[in-house]
Structures are given as structure tokens and as C-alpha cells.
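The instructor's notes for this session suggest beginning with a concrete chain rather than abstract definitions. Hand out the sequence below and ask the class to guess, before any prediction is shown, which regions might be ordered.
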Amino acid sequence: MIHGDKRGADLERWLAAQLPGKRFSLTPASEDASFRRYFRVALEDGGSLIAMDAPPEKEDCRPFVHVARLLREAGVHAPTVEAQDLAQGFLLLTDLGMRSYLQELNAQNAARLFADATGALVRWQLASRPGELPAYDEALLRREVGLFPEWYVARHLKVELSAPQNSALDEIFQLLIKSALAQPAVYVHRDYMPRNLMVCEPNPGVLDFQDAVFGPITYDPVCLMRDAFISWEEEQVLDWTVRYWEKAKLAKLPVDADFGEFWRAFEWMGLQRHLKVLGIFARLNYRDGKPKYLADTPRFVDYALSVSKRYRELGPLARLLDELQPA
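After discussion, reveal the predicted structure:
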């Protein structure tokens, strides 16, 4: 039972109507950075389902339902929507289990799990069709990188950038956005990382896909390889990225025929994401009261510094990040 919670009580009544004559119990299944909540619905026969509670004034369930269908049509293991009430913001989903990649990855199984993840990613990208998902356009890319100076620099570090620093940062943003928009466009999960991949059959199960867009082909691969919550040696990242690129070429996806060019686009796309996430993690703390994400900001600063130091054009960002370090 969900005690002292009107939405929880409404959810339980709704579930009882969807599961007539069946006894069930609810336990928290997971939480994410949004206003959505997930509960595991344990049935008396031993089966289980997942209930999503997404307050309609804060979240829209329709993209989740739509993208779940696109993923399954692509041959990717996503939850099936068993029942829905979009007006109340309730979904009843199949349960992909409790074993996330983030929990299960180790030196012995990483190669196999990443091979499965890149295989599913290629299937997802191969299914791409224009018009199904919102465009990952210049306006969205710019809004995302704008979170870095607004929330990470100004709010978290309490630093006011000088006019030359702002100008240099804007030029970097322009380079990153231009690189992203020059890439072939495919379906983009947008958080294709170990936390959102489940170890199950068929493997992997894919979650947290409601923000999917139509955009740069390197975005999901770099999400997977340069994760928010787990880091790998650069040699390992390079090896897995080459393996993805080879699979993508074999499948006739529009990846650059020159791996060096693909790798550059991959790194610059990752940098755009890492700057965005630094802003998001700060915003989660100061606006939404979710402080746990701030602990992972040093990982993203390291990612951003490493990439910006490798490319002459990104040198001004490397210098800015170095200047911000003492703060």
C-alpha cells in the first residue's frame, strides 16, 4: 500500500480496476530525475508488472507510449503497455526485472553486455523514419548547452563569467551544435546508458526512453560509452566504439566511412552532452531538491576537459574549465 498519498491511493484504485479479482501489493521500483514514480506490482501468482505514476500537470505519458511502440517495432526489448489512463497519468507495463547494467557490469561480462547493447542500438537506429519523433534541432541543442553557464557555473560554482569568457563559450557552443547538426539523423534514445538498460532476455531491456528525438547518429553511442555513473579506460571506450561503428557500417547505417571522422563527431557530441548534464545535475539539486546527482559532476568535468584538450578548436573551453576548477 502507498500510505498518506492521494495519487498513490488513486493509482491503487486504478490498478484494482485493471486487475479485477487479483490480489496485488506495491513496492517502489525505481525513481528518476523527473516527477515520474515507478512501482512494482507483485501479483499473488508470483508474476509482476510495473505501474508508472506520472502527474499529468508535470509529465506527459504519450511520448512514452509512442516510443515504446517504436522500440518494439524495431526489435528492441522495451516494456509493453498493458493498460493506460493518460488523463490520470497512469501506465501499467510489463516488468523487465531488477538487474540493471549499472549494477551488473564487471570485467568478466562487460564485453558481452556491451555487444548486446550495441546490437540493440543498431536495430533501433535502422528503424528510423522522419516525422515519428521531435527533431533534435539547433534550438534544443542550444537550450541544452545553455544549462551549463546558467546552472553549473553561475548557480553551483557561483562564478560570473566575464564578457570574453562568455564570448569564447558561445563560440564553442556554435562549433558543437554545427558538428551535431552535420551528422546523419536517426532515432535517438537520449539516455542510452547502463542505468537504463536491464539484463534480461532478450538482452538488453530498454527503459527511460520517453525523451527520444530524431537527431545525431553518435548521440546514443556516446551515452553508452561515456556514462554518467560509470567510467571506462579510454582504450576500452575506443575499442567498443570501433565495434559499434563496424556493426553500423555492416548494417548500412549512415556512419562516416572514416573512423577518425566518426570518432571526432562522437567526442564532440559527447562534449555537448557532458556540458548539458553538468547543468542538469546542478539544476536537480538547486531547483528540484535532488542533491545526489551532484556527486557525479567531477566525472563530467573530467570528460569535458579530456575532450577539449584533444582538439585545437576546443582549446578555449579547456582553458575556461581550468580557470573554473579552483572554484
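Then share the key points. Residues 259-286 form the longest helix (28 residues). The chain has two domains: 6-94, 101-324.
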